[in-house]
Amino acid sequence: MDSSTESTHIVVCDAETGAVLRQGYAPHPKAAAADDAKAYEIDPQAWLLSLGEACAGGLLEGVQAIGVAAQQDAVLALDAMGVPVRPALVGNDPRVQGPAADLTDALGGRGGWAEAVGNVPGAKLPVAKLAWLRREEPDAAERAAQVLLPQDWLVWQLLGRPARRTTDRGAASCTGYYSTATEQWRGDLVAAALGHEAGLPQVLGPAEAAGRTPEGLIISAGTGETMAAAFGLGVGEGDAVVTLGASGAVFAVHGQALPDPSGVITSLADATGMHLPVVHTANAVRALRGTAEMLGLDPADLEGLSALALRSTPGAHGLVLLPYLEGERTPDLPHTAGSLHGLRRESMKPEHLARAAFEGMLCGLADALQVLRARGVTVQRVFLLGAAAQLSAVQALAPSLLGAQVVVPEAADYTALGAARQAAWAWGVSEGRWSPDAPPPWPSARHQVFEPGEQLAVGQAVRQQYAAVREQQYPGALPVETAEQAGQ
Fold first, then answer.
1. What is the mean pLDDT of residues 101-105?
2. Residue 421 above 70 pLDDT?
3. What radius of gyration do the chain's Cα atoms show?
4. Is the peptide bond before 27 cis (omega within 30 degrees of 0)?
5. Which of 24, 57, 165, 289 is most open to solvent, judged by the fewest CB atoms within 10 Å of its CB?
6. Is the per-residue pLDDT at 293 higher than 90?
7. DSSP calls for 243-275
8. Cα–Cα distance between 205 and 329 in angstroms, integer?
9. What letters, b where the CB count within 10 A reaches 16 and e where it falls short, cover 287-324?
10. HEC states along 413-478?
11. Which residues contact residue 192 at a Cβ distance below 8 angstroms, ignoring those fewer than 6 apart?
């Protein structure tokens, strides 16, 4: 089950082969008239209603085990009787920015938080939402006796609300009060945010079951969306994943936690016992849509922009787009804007600007990838996720600009597949079929593979051109590399 921000998607898989047998879907019910503030709140009962609708019509008939993945930028506070003290706080809530900043300062700044738990308080982080609750709704904060994430609450509900509440290390690492280095809760940070300590769920091992439903179904530990997607994809050491949304994210499988004093790397744990260091960018596909509109194309017509870009040549005839349209997170330039460089009469053609947009987007993601490489993360394959991964220009340019083999999986809900694979693992261990040390060997999804080949040197030259402009405009903003090292 994938309980995301807006809907529930269920896949029923064969435990031995991973083959998808049935699927279900339902949107989360919405309040009739939500104001801007309420957009970042939801009654958790909506998750249950959506789940019930998604599995209607006998979808779960014959199912032996259930895994739950859910949105990880959310938190739910319960009173001593297990009743929510208020609706769940979800998403990138702008109301939380002030309390997040205060909380960051309370632990000595970004470096103190990165060292303590592997991530820095921001509007998305549950620990910052608890600080907002204490500031704005002190009575509710005082009644909070237990703190859960969405998948923890859903697992607890499916099990019939037992005395024990559980989570997994992947989900726990998203909270801001779990140390990925020591793999322990930091109750003192909950107290710093909420004003007092609160109960936290027991952290289960990757193949451990949370329990059985009253009907006897095994419920696995559950995990966050990012961890479930990585597990569903089947990525391992040497693999990185680049998500192409309006903004971008790069994460990779690594053997140890990577606390980062600068706060650029978010050090998460995965669903298998490994780690998932993540680097975010504020801009990805939004740079393509903006360029399309600037050129008089429909901003949704990225295929047209892609075809136009491929009429240009590597380096876009000297044009370099720094795609910092919404400021940027990597490099840390929150108040800057995008900029176009290298304009000459001969370069002022639509195809060159289109090419510069694709190169700028991918070079920005290559910067994020370089942050991980500079910390010793091995990257041999890069998985591209998102609709933009299907664009011909992305597939043609990404291997040489990212400096690795590029894998484009077929479209699927890898979060739901990862949750199902976790459920199969817990079931297989309980049946003595599989070891708790190795997940079920489901085959990887069908995919296309693109190699950098002899274009690698060309891609490195484009990276150098981009890095030189970035360094000229924002010296030292990305300290992990020099322009000469770009693309290596």
1. 94
2. yes
3. 23
4. no
5. 57
6. yes
7. EESSSEEEEE-BSS----TTS-EEEEE-SSSSE
8. 33
9. bbbbbbeebebeeeebeebbebbbebebbbbebbbbbb
10. CHHHHHHHHHHHHHHHHHCCCCCCCCCCCCCCCCEEEECCHHHHHHHHHHHHHHHHHHHHHCCCCC
11. 103, 106, 107, 131
Angle at 53 between CA 47 and CA 58, to 5 degrees: 130
Name the amino acid, one letter, at 92: N
Asked whether the predicted pLDDT for residue 485 surpasses 70, the reply is no
Tell me: pLDDT of 197 over 50.
Answer: yes
- Token couple for 247: 């903004």
Work out the angle between the directed axes of helices 126-136 and 97-106 (0-180°, nearest 10).
Answer: 110
Euclidean distance between CA atoms 167 and 205, whole angstroms:
9
Confidence of residue 92 (pLDDT cuts 50, 70, 90): confident
Task: Cite the beta strand spans of 37-158 per DSSP E.
Answer: 41-42, 65-66, 69-70, 74-78, 88-90, 146-148
Q: Which pLDDT belongs to residue 486?
A: 42
The answer to whether 385 and 244 have CB atoms below 8 angstroms apart is: yes
Helix (H) or strand (E) run with residue 40 in it: none
What is the C-alpha to C-alpha distance for residues 169 and 149, in angstroms, rounded to an integer? Answer: 12
